[in-house]
Write a structure and sequence with these properties.
- By secondary structure, this protein is α+β, with helices and mostly antiparallel strands.
- It folds into two domains: about 200 residues, no CATH class; about 150 residues, no CATH class.
- Helix content is about 50%, strand content about 20%.
- It has 15 helices and 16 strands.
- The strands form four sheets. It has a ten-stranded antiparallel β-sheet, with helices on both faces. The protein has a two-stranded antiparallel sheet with strand order 1-2.
- α5 packs antiparallel against α9.
- The longest helix has 29 residues.
- It starts with a helix and ends with a strand.
- The relative contact order is 0.09.
Length: about 425
C-alpha cells in the first residue's frame, strides 16, 4: 500500500473535490483494490479514535470524574465497529448502484463503491473528532454534512447521472446511509455494555393484509418514511436551482437539502446566543455563576447553538451547565426518541444509563469514588440541558436541572422552524 498516495487522495477529495472526482471516476479499479488501498485504512480511523477515547483517555469531567471502558471490551467494540463500517460501505455502494436507473444514472458496482468510499472520507476523518473534549459531536456532524456534499459532487462523475438529478439521488442515498450507520452504532453500543435497544421501534410499524403492507405513520419507521419524502422534496429544489445555472442558488439549495436531511425535513435556524442566555440563571443549586458564554455555529445550511456556564462557591464546589440547541440536527434527535433508545451500565464505581421519561430522553452518569457525575435531558427533540460536576448524589444534579426553566425552553422547540 502506498500511504503517500493515500494521503494525497484524502487531501484532494477533501480540499479540491470538484477537480478530484473526474480523476477518481476515470481510474481503473476493482472492489478489492478500493478496499485494500483505501477503505480498510480510512474506516479504521473512527474505530481507533473511539477505542483511545473510551478505553485510554476515558470520558468525564477533567479533574473531577473519569469513566473508562475496559480494555478488552473496548477492543472488541472497536473491531466489531470497524468490520461493520466495512460492511456498511459495501451495502451503501449496492444501494447507490441499485438506485441508479431511478435517477438516469448508469449501474456500475465499482463506480458505486468509489462514490460511497470517497464521499464517506469526510465522515471517517471527522471520526477522529471524538478525541476532542465536548466538541467531538460537532466535528462528527460537520464530517457528515461534508460527506453529503462530496457524494452530491461525485455522483454525476462516478454514476454518470444527469447533474440536475444529483440532488434527489444524493438525498435518497444519504437517508438510507444515515440509518445504516445508526443501526451499526447500536450494535457496537450493545457490545460495549450499554445494552442499547430500540424498544418499540418496530412495534406496530406495519399493518395491512395479504400482499398489501402499510406503514403506521405514528411508528418509528412510518416517521422515517415521511422524513425521507420531505428530504426528496427538498432535493427537487436543488435540481431546479441546478437547471437555472445560478451558482448561489445552487449552494443555498444544497444547504437547504442537507439541513432537511438532518432536521427531519424542516429548515431550522437555531436560537441566537442571546436567546439562550436567559436559561443560564445567576445561581444554580446555591452556587453563583462565575462564567457565561454562548455561541451559534453554522455552515452549509446547518446550525447549532450552545451556552455554557460555571457555578462555584468559596468552598470549592463547582457545577457546569450546558444548554444546546441542536437546530438543524433535530431530526436525528427525534430519530433516537422514536426508537426509544435506552441503555444501562453499572459497576462498582458507578453507573451510566439513558432512558425515556415523560416523553423526554434522559441521560445519567455517576462516579461513586469522585462523588461526581452528570445529568442531562432532551427537550422537544431539539434542546439538550446538562448539569455536571461534584455533588452528594445524582439526585442533587437532577434537582439542579429541575430548577431550570425547562418548560420555557421546550416551548421554543418550533422557533425558527420552517416546515418542509
Amino acid at each position: 500500500m502506498d500511504f503517500n498516495k493515500l494521503i494525497a487522495r484524502v487531501k484532494a477529495i477533501l480540499l479540491t473535490p470538484k477537480a478530484e472526482w473526474p480523476i477518481i471516476a476515470g481510474e481503473p479499479a476493482t472492489v478489492a483494490d478500493l478496499y485494500k488501498n483505501y477503505i480498510v485504512v480510512l474506516a479504521a480511523l473512527p474505530a481507533l479514535a473511539g477505542f483511545i477515547k473510551g478505553s485510554v483517555l476515558g470520558y468525564g469531567i477533567p479533574g473531577v470524574a473519569h469513566f473508562r471502558t475496559p480494555i478488552g471490551m473496548g477492543l472488541t467494540a472497536a473491531v466489531v465497529g470497524y468490520l461493520l463500517s466495512l460492511a456498511v460501505t459495501y451495502v451503501m455502494a449496492l444501494i447507490i448502484d441499485a438506485l441508479a436507473p431511478n435517477f438516469g444514472a448508469q449501474k456500475n458496482p465499482v463506480q458505486a463503491l468509489k462514490a460511497a468510499a470517497y464521499a464517506w472520507t469526510a465522515s471517517w476523518v471527522a471520526g477522529i473528532g471524538v478525541l476532542v473534549p465536548f466538541l467531538g459531536w460537532l466535528v462528527a456532524l460537520a464530517g457528515l454534512a461534508y460527506a453529503i456534499y462530496l457524494l452530491y459532487l461525485g455522483l454525476p462523475h462516478t454514476m454518470q447521472c444527469p447533474p440536475e438529478k444529483a440532488g434527489g439521488y444524493t438525498a435518497v442515498s444519504v437517508v438510507i446511509g444515515i440509518v445504516l450507520s445508526w443501526l451499526a452504532a447500536l450494535v457496537v453500543g450493545g457490545i460495549v455494555g450499554t445494552g442499547a435497544v430500540m424498544s418499540g421501534a418496530m412495534t406496530g410499524a406495519f399493518s395491512g393484509s395479504g400482499n398489501e403492507i402499510t406503514l403506521d405513520k405514528d411508528s418509528a419507521l412510518g416517521k422515517l418514511d415521511a422524513w425521507s419524502k420531505k428530504v426528496e422534496s427538498a432535493s427537487k429544489q436543488l435540481e431546479a436551482a441546478q437547471k437555472s445555472g445560478d451558482a448561489d442558488a445552487q449552494e443555498k439549495a444544497l444547504g437547504a437539502m442537507m439541513g432537511a436531511a438532518l432536521s427531519g425535513g424542516d429548515q431550522v435556524e437555531s436560537l441566537a446566543p442571546d436567546q439562550l442566555k436567559p436559561f443560564m440563571p445567576e445561581t444554580l443549586a446555591g452556587l453563583r455563576r462565575t462564567h457565561l458564554s454562548a455561541q451559534r455555529s453554522g455552515a452549509m445550511g446547518l446550525q447549532v447553538s450552545t451556552a455554557e456556564a460555571t457555578y462555584a462557591d468559596d468552598a470549592g464546589h463547582e457545577l457546569q451547565l450546558e444548554v444546546s440547541d441542536t437546530g438543524s440536527a433535530k431530526g436525528l434527535m427525534a430519530m433516537a426518541s422514536w426508537a426509544t433508545l435506552q441503555n444501562e451500565t453499572e459497576s462498582d464505581h458507578g453507573f451510566e444509563k439513558t432512558y425515556k421519561q415523560d416523553g423526554r430522553m434522559v441521560h445519567e452518569q455517576w462516579d461513586n469514588q469522585s462523588r461526581s457525575g452528570e445529568y442531562s435531558i432532551v427537550l422537544g427533540n431539539r434542546f439538550t440541558v446538562k448539569v455536571s460536576g461534584g455533588a452528594d448524589s445524582i439526585d442533587q444534579l437532577k434537582a439542579a436541572v429541575a430548577g431550570l426553566d425547562l418548560a420555557g425552553l421546550e416551548a421554543l422547540k418550533d422557533h425558527g422552524v420552517k416546515k418542509g
